[in-house]
Design brief:
The protein has 295 residues and is an alpha/beta fold. The protein has helices at 39-47, 70-85, 116-133, 149-157, 169-172, 174-181, 189-198, 253-276, and strands at 32-33, 51-56, 92-94, 137-142, 163-167, 184-186, 244-245. It has one domain: Rossmann fold, CATH 3.40.50.10310. The protein has a five-stranded parallel β-sheet with strand order 1-3-2-4-5, sandwiched between helices. It has a two-stranded antiparallel ribbon with strand order 6-7.
Length: 295
């Protein structure tokens, strides 16, 4: 019987600073990229009470005009911009992006991903590795929204004490993003603009077409499953070209840079005080409620 080996590729960086970016020959605590740093600088960052940042991307279709790695390109770019906004002395360690995500909905066109359980397990085990290194502040940064927070709760349940932070920059500064580029659901003006700013050679504007503004249609098969608090899962046929939101033909690189800078600023505003302050003691200990003495 042949031996079957299961391999999960955790990450791939598609748009990242040049090798050596953020490293210091003196070994000072500063912003570093785990993959590009030597082991001493990674350990120094942890010992300086640094923040380990885990970006989350995806590999899924984004319409006929955008690359399947759009989410990964975008999160890598605004994380890099956020780190560049920091005081260099602040200890931040950017981990490789977890690119394989929960994307089976896009499989009628093209996607490659993992199950929700597998993704949560990957995040959990990466958190274990980081806490083993001594990191007590870990931030998940979403370029593709998935239920990563469940993995952080599980890490706490498994007594891996740390300050775990779930960061969705798109939700944090959503109103500003809409003001700049209109409604974004998937692959429309907002994401097209950011890709024009990041990698215009990968955007085919000749194939960009208008799309439905909302993923969820105005009508539902039954009145009882429409309205506030009830969300019927749409079929892929509701987005026949694979994207929805504001017309991507309105996209420009100038809009994309404004969006990326806005996302980066929102993220930097969270990371800077997180990196610049010590981990509170309650996040560094395992607490268990004592059984009260019976009277």
């Amino acid at each position: 019987m042949p031996m079957i080996v299961h391999v999960i590729v955790l990450a791939q960086e598609l748009s990242w600073p040049a090798p050596g970016a953020g490293t210091s020959p003196e070994g000072l605590s500063m912003a570093i990229y785990f993959k590009q740093s030597n082991w001493m600088n990674v350990r120094r960052c942890a010992e300086a009470d640094g923040v380990a940042v885990i970006p989350l991307g995806s590999l899924e279709q984004h319409g006929p005009h955008l690359p399947c790695g759009t989410d990964t390109f975008e999160v890598n770019e605004f994380v890099a911009r956020a780190v560049a906004m920091h005081d260099d002395a602040l200890p931040v360690c950017v981990c490789p992006t977890i690119e394989y995500s929960v994307v089976s909905w896009a499989s009628p066109m093209a996607s490659a991903g993992v199950s929700p359980f597998t993704l949560q397990r990957i995040i959990l085990e990466v958190c274990h590795a980081l806490t083993d290194l001594g990191f007590t502040k870990i931030a998940l940064v979403y370029g593709h929204k998935v239920a990563g927070d469940a993995a952080l709760w599980q890490a706490m349940y498994e007594k891996r004490s740390a300050l775990y932070v779930d960061i969705d920059p798109y939700a944090r500064c959503g109103e500003k993003l809409v003001e700049i580029a209109g409604v974004e659901n998937h692959g429309s003006c907002m994401e097209t603009s950011m890709m024009l700013a990041i990698a215009p050679e990968l955007v085919d504007m000749d194939k960009a077409v208008d799309c439905p503004e909302e993923l969820w249609p105005d009508h539902a098969p039954f009145d009882s499953i429409s309205g506030r608090g009830v969300y019927p899962i749409p079929t892929v046929e509701d987005t026949p070209e694979g994207h929805c939101g504001t017309d991507p033909r309105r996209a420009t690189a100038e809009i994309g840079n404004r969006l990326l800078d806005t996302l980066a600023k929102c993220l930097a505003d969270v990371l800077e005080p997180l990196a610049g302050n010590p981990t509170p003691p309650q996040f560094k200990r395992v607490w268990r409620k004592e059984v009260p003495t019976e009277k």
